[in-house]
TrEMBL record:
<dbReference type="InterPro" id="IPR015915">
    <property type="entry name" value="Kelch-typ_b-propeller"/>
</dbReference>
<keyword id="KW-0472">Membrane</keyword>
<dbReference type="Pfam" id="PF24681">
    <property type="entry name" value="Kelch_KLHDC2_KLHL20_DRC7"/>
</dbReference>
<keyword id="KW-1133">Transmembrane helix</keyword>
<keyword id="KW-0880">Kelch repeat</keyword>
<protein>
    <submittedName>
        <fullName>Uncharacterized protein</fullName>
    </submittedName>
</protein>
<feature type="transmembrane region" description="Helical">
    <location>
        <begin position="143"/>
        <end position="167"/>
    </location>
</feature>
<keyword id="KW-0677">Repeat</keyword>
<keyword id="KW-0812">Transmembrane</keyword>
<dbReference type="InterPro" id="IPR011043">
    <property type="entry name" value="Gal_Oxase/kelch_b-propeller"/>
</dbReference>
Amino acid sequence: MIQSTIHGRERIVPAARAVFSTVLGLDGQSVIVFGGDSEPPLSREFALYVLDINKFRWRIPGISGKIPASRSFHRTLVVGNYMVVTFGLGYVREDDNDILLLDISNNDEFAWTTSFVPPPLTSQSPTPQSPTQSSSQSNINTIGIAIGISIGVIGGIALTVGGFFLYKQYKNRKERSTAIPTPGNERINIKYS
């Protein structure tokens, strides 16, 4: 963590890092930064920062739960009240899960957790489909996938066969152009007047 002094006040600035992830906070006024790769490697305490996009101020939020190791080349997204962190590099799988859940519903203190509570259905949420709708859509999707796979397989075979014949034709032309003429095999073009 880098600290700088501005007019007698300390401000927190995250260490330079690469291959980190960001998500927009639930309030729409903050950006949550997690993980990344830096030199020296990031410690667990300094892997998570929040940027207030109105004031452009960084802060390290209060965190509860088992803090996971920082990771890089991972993906994050927001689902309901959770920031979901998936896979990545730089952590020990025996110590941390491949998928992490950070409850970001409380702006003052985030919580690393292992339990997911899905958001309740609201009038804006899509309503569940009846079984007949979902089964007919499933059949349509299955037929579409089967047609797509068939076209892909046939196209792949056609490209392979066509490529093979083009290669053979190219190879035969190359052999004819580099062949040494043998006496007696020349064609004689005689013009009769």
